[in-house]
């Protein structure tokens, strides 16, 4: 379901003219364009983000158009992480690339998203310590998050995926908050293990 959410979000951003995220298993580009922007030469020191950073560079530095193939038959399946540890290290690896986005406004948006997730932990605590008003803001924030993400997922799922992937929606909405905070924070340090390799930035 999370992968579906990432694909759907990526599709929406591409459709709005702001290509930001993509999945390497579901991306194709012309060799001419790859060579024209210097390929991966400018990001050889990174362990993640080659797909997204390349797409962003093509969008930023050329006149080529980036499109999303809105067709179920165009989707490519990949294997899920076999263990929770592998899942954590993959997400940490993904988070480590955010600091290297060339668009400073995009980086600011990522920081604001992280702070929003952080507020979902802080608001209930403040509700106990300072004022019960924070319980109201917490409930409103959580409700808006759940509603917005459900509407986006439902729309994208109708177009690209099977509706059954939405069954664990509420559970994953709750689990997503701590995992985003932990992987996002730890990703800033860059050191991780991936496919039996120790990777350092």
Strand adjacency order, main sheet:
1-2
| Oligomerization | single chain
Order of helices and strands: HHHHHHHEE
Distance between the termini: 30 Å
Helix content: 55-70%
Low-confidence stretches: none
**What radius of gyration results from the CA coordinates?**
18 Å
Domains, number = 1
Biggest sheet features: 2 strands, antiparallel
Helical/strand content category? mainly alpha
Total beta strand runs: 2
How would you describe what is shown here?
- The protein is an all-alpha fold.
- The protein has one domain (2-199).
- The chain has 7 helices and 2 strands, in the order αααααααββ.
- The chain has helices at 2-15, 31-36, 50-61, 84-95, 104-129, 133-160, 169-187, and strands at 192-194, 197-199.
- A two-stranded antiparallel ribbon has the order 1-2.
- Helix 5 (104-129) packs across helix 7 (169-187).
- The mean pLDDT is 85.
Main attributes?
single chain, 201 residues, mainly alpha, two-stranded antiparallel ribbon, 7 helices, 2 strands, globular
Short description:
The protein has helices at residues 2-15, 31-36, 50-61, 84-95, 104-129, 133-160, 169-187; strands spanning 192-194, 197-199. It is mainly alpha-helical.
Helix and strand layout, with pairings?
Layout: H1 2-15, H2 31-36, H3 50-61, H4 84-95, H5 104-129, H6 133-160, H7 169-187, E1 192-194, E2 197-199
Antiparallel strand pairs: 1-2
Helix pairs in contact: 1-6, 4-7, 5-6, 5-7
